[in-house]
Every structure is written in C-alpha cells, then in structure tokens.
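Hello,

Our lab assistant flagged a job as stuck in the queue for most of the afternoon. It eventually completed. Since we weren't sure the result was trustworthy after the delay, we are filing this so someone can double-check. Below is the sequence as submitted and the structure that was eventually returned. Let us know if re-running is recommended.
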Amino acid sequence: MTLLLGLGLGLASNFPPLRRLEWLAEDLRLRLRARVDTPPPTGKIVLLAIDEKSLATQGQWPFTRSVHGQIMEWLGKAPEVRPAVISWDFVFTEETYNPELDQMFSEPLAKAGYPIVMGAFSTVAAKGIWTQGRPAPRLGLTKSLVLSPAMLAVLPDYGIQIPIVPLLDVTRFALLDADADEDGVVRKVPLMVRTGDRVFPSLVLQTLLAYWRVGPEAVEVQLGDAVIVRTAEGERRVPVDERGCYRVNYRYELPSKAFPVGIEAVSYQDTYDALAPWALFGDKRPEMPVAGKIVLVGETAVGLTDIGPSPLRGESPKVLVHLNALENILRGDYLRSVPLWPGLMVLLLAGVGASWVLDRYQFRVYLVVAPALLVVAITGAYFALQLGNFMIPLATPLVAFNLQQAVVAVLKIREEQAQRERIRRMFGAYVSPELVRRMVEARAEPQLGGHEDEITAFFSDIQGFSAFSEVLTPVDLVELLNEYLGAMTDILQERGGALDKYIGDAIVAMFGGLVPLADHARKACETAARMQLRQAELRTQWQAQGDRWPPLVHAMRMRIGLNSGRVVVGNMGSRHRFNYTMMGDVVNLAARCESGAKPFGVYTLVTEETVKAAQAAGCACVFRALDRIVVKGRTLPVEVYELTALSPAHLPEGGARCLELFAAGRAHYLRQEWAEAMRCFEEAAPLEPLQPERDAGVEKNPSLLMRDRCEKLQAHPPGADWDGVYRMTSK
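-- returned structure --
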C-alpha cells in the first residue's frame, strides 16, 4: 500500500493543487530563513529606486527622458561616482513626441564611460526582432550567444521588442522575461531568450557580462546543467534547467523592520537631488554609494505595474527578482533541488513506523509519535535549506503521509469494530450488556481460564425474602423483584460495578477484575450506601401506592456484604456452559459479611480491608467499627464495620452522638469494663437510626446487641487472656 501510494502521489506531484502546495511550502521556508538567517549582501549591487518620493517630485510615471539623461550625465562626470554598470528594469521601446528628449537621454549614455543595459521583452504576437513596431535595422552593441543547433531547438522561439534605435548604438539590450507561476510568484528567470536562430542574454546574464567585462563569446551554455562564464577571475557556473532558466534563491527584500538585512537601495529622487548641485554649480562632490557597483534601476513605488507577490512578501517590487538572482550568482549562493522520490519514500516508511506504534501502543502514544514525525520532517527540510541550500520537496510527502495515516486510522477503526463485535459475541451470552460495553471500551479481553486481580466483592440479599412468596402472587413477585433488581443494578453499573449473577433476590457483583478499577473499594462502598438510600425511596414509593403491596413489601430491607482483596476472576464452568465470575477466600468472606450483618442488626457490613482501601481512595462514607469476629467456616478473625451513611451530611439527627457513644462503649468493652460499656451502649441505643419497636422488620441494633453481650460477659467473665474476638456459630 505504501509503495502504491508513493508512486501515485509522485506521479501526481504536478497536479495543480499539489504544485501550489509545494510552492507554498517552499515560500514559507524561504520567508522564515530570510527573517532568521540572512547573510549581508555582497555590497556590489545598488538599487536605484523609482519610489513614492520620486513620483511625488517628478510627477506622473514615466518620467521625462531628459531626467534620466541628466542623471546618466552626472554619474559619468567623475570616476568617484561612476558605477560599473547600469541596468534598466523597464523598457524604452517607443519614441516620445519630441525626438530632442530622446536625444537628451541617448547622448549622455554615449558619453557615460561605463556599460549600460537597456530592457527588452519577448512576445508571441510576432517572430523576429522589432523596434518601434518595425523590424530592427540593426542591433548595435548587443551580440547573441552561441548555442549548438540541438540546444537551440530546445528553447521556445519568441519575437522580441527591443529599445528605440537611438539607444541601440550606445547600449546593450537584455530580456526582462520573468514569467510568474500560477500563484503570481516568479521563481525562475531565464538567462537567455531565443528568437529565430539567435539567443540573447537576459537582464541578469547581460548585466553580469558587462560587470565582468566579457562578451557572449565567454559564455558556454549547457542546458539542464549550467551556464558557464569564463572571467578574468575564473570560471563561473550558474545552474539552469532544461529551458535555460535559473531558480532564484530568494534572500533579500528592501530593508524594513521585517527585513533588517536587505538590498542597498537609493531613491531615484535623492540621487537626482544629490548630483544636481554638484553638477550644476560645482559644489563638493557628493558621496554616492554607486561607484564601481552594479546599479539596477527599477520601480518600487506602490501602485506601479512592476509590483507583485514574492516568496518573501505578499507584495514586492519585481526588480528584486533580478537583484536576488544577481546576488546569488555573485556569491555562488545557489538553491540545490532535491528529487521528490527519496523524501517521499522516507516519510512513507516513517508512516509505516507510526502505524506500528498504533498497533502496539495506546492511541495517545500514536498521537504524539505521528505529529512528531511531521515536525521532524518539516524541521529537517528547513535546516536543509538554511544550512545547505537544499530545497527538499515537502508538500507531496506530507500529503502522502497524512493520506497514509488516514488509511491506517480507517483500517484500525474497522479492526477495532471487528474486535468489539467479537467481544460482544464472546461474552454477550453470559454477562450483562453493560459489562460487555465497558469491556469493549477498555480494549481489554479477560484471560480465558481466570487471572488473579485485586477487587471488592459485593453480595446483597433481601431480608426474609422467602416470606414474600407467601403473600404475593407469582406475577406480583416477579414484578416487584424486577423493579427492585432493576433499580439496584442501575446504581451498581453506574458506579462501575460488574454484575456477576442474580441468585433469586440476591445480587452478586464485583468492582474490578473484568475491567481494571483503581478505586474499587471506594466505588463499592458508595454504591452500597446509594443502594440503601434508593431502597428507602422504593419503600416510600410502595407505601404511597396504598393497598397495591402488602405491609411486608413496605418494610422490605436488604443486607449487603463487602470485602476487598486478591481473588481469581475469569471463566468458570464447562467448555459448553460457563460464567465469568470470581473465586477465593475474599469472595467467601464477603458472602459471610452479608449474612453476618443480621446478628448485629445492621444492613451493610464491610471488612477492615475494604474500609482502609476506600478511605485511602478518598471515600467520604461514614463507617462504625462493630466487632472482631470469626465467621463460620474460617479460623482467622476479621474486623468488621457498619457502613452507616454515604457522607456525614447523610447521618440522621443524633447519629454522630450515637457513633461517639458506641465507640466509647466498645473501648470499655475491649478492656472488659463491662459496667461502663453497658452505660455507653444503653445511652447510644435510643439514638440508633433503626429501632426494633418503631421500624418494621428491625429486630435489634448494634447498641442493644452489645449491651446484651456485655451483660452476659459480666455474668461470665472471659478471663484475662480474652482477645475480644467473637466467634459466630451460624452463617
């Protein structure tokens, strides 16, 4: 799949949307680099800018040609201000209404004493070389490049419009061609343009030839490789593509807050104002930054036609295209294009690694790894540009990576859906639907055959339920039981409990085991307290229904036993019929707590292990230490507690005082101070929330039980070696 995806996107990389994304990715890197790491310019180029100040002073553009002529004359007067070459990034292809004005421009150019390059432009409207709408009579100082017939055939054939005749004999012309891409940004400039069997240099190449003082004979063209210029200082190789175009390595803009390092620029008007007094009145010669440099005259004023987007800024003077290209070549600072395929395959292979992470680890790990790979790829591409001028294709590989991960995610979702369905089929026949749902959400299949785990076991039973069948019809009994079990099971499952089974009116459940539950003891205790509150509501509801239910139903109460510890949970039974349940001594003790609540006159009996674990997890339930007992069938004593309320706020009036007196009485009891213990228990008994004579179904309460036990022990003292343990003789 990865190879097919890479092949498909590689072949589609020239599809317009992908191409635009690639341009955007390149431009963002160039823009960031220009703000972070821009080397100072060579200092060999000055922009003579037609800016807002020039327009405000000289008037409407284009200026009168005599103005240009005056500046050219003044710049040629003395070597101190004489540039190495002046190139014009606009054209003079039409004569003015006054030939004398053209002459006022051409005569200073003839006397300048330095090379001057005038702009020309290509056209598809006509073939050949044209000036002022007529075939050019001569080319003056401009010479064509020499290319082999094979290379000549590769270049497209254009017509060209060159400067007016008066300028041809005193200047060289050069093509200003710089076609923009579909997004309006110029990224490549041709170094040559063909017309018929002749090839003429572009503005960039012609300017450099003039600066290096060499002619077209010093140029060797190798399309798809380089344009080689042999100068007095050595050989210069400028990389070009198959059409002879140079890819601009954008670094510089006009100096600003965003671009503190920029091209040196001088206002056209400031130059005029500085030279005029000296030239006309013989004042001290001005210090001009153009001496011995390449001077490029171009438009920078907002509103002129030569403004457009660049990789570095939304709106930028187009003369900076040529300026950046000139700076690149003078510095040997070339972009190095990297093929698409290596980066594409590396990122897709990294995507395979990310999908492996998704398979092996939790989804949140994948959410870190996958974006991290993208960050690494983007960061690597940026530093490859900053440190080595490598322009690595980024958009297509990133699109491929994201498509790959989308496919992986879809496949993973389908796999998980299949797994969930398999779990539902596997366990839906013998556990509750809610439990199956939570198993699926937990993405954890229990180990078949059982595994050891830390849980809290839960047992509940309705007090005296056998008597209900005597006073209720089978239909009413089922209706009542369903209402009761439904209400209790809802609370159980809402609090994270897993229903094991119903045994008649009894509920067997576990907290933890099938699905991991860190605070299982706290949730079990809170569930038991909420169940007791809910059953009180049911009793009120049934009483409000009048004769619908007999008094026995109005007095229904349930007992609950809880114990925490390590048990074995898993599939128990035969190959053909099995149940997911729990086994172990912890489970047996929880069942004994449920039945053992009856002798104490309480309805929720909890072991010390459960109380400690619940309180450690922040449980707010109120517990009362009742006794140290040995239940039937065990030999080791266990401390048991009554779960008296969901929180201190749920204690009835006098409840806190009752617990205080009971605790004091139990302390006397353990010290065999029987009289003091009986006094405390006697005082606590009226404050107990359940009273035998008042509350239906209540036979005793803990204070009365302990008072009676103290009377017996006072009559028959247990001896000095008594350990305070009470041994139960029945379940």
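-- support follow-up --
The delay was a queue issue, not a problem with the job. The result is valid. The domain at 461-647 is CATH 3.30.70.1230 (Alpha-Beta Plaits). The two ends are 66 Å apart (CA to CA).
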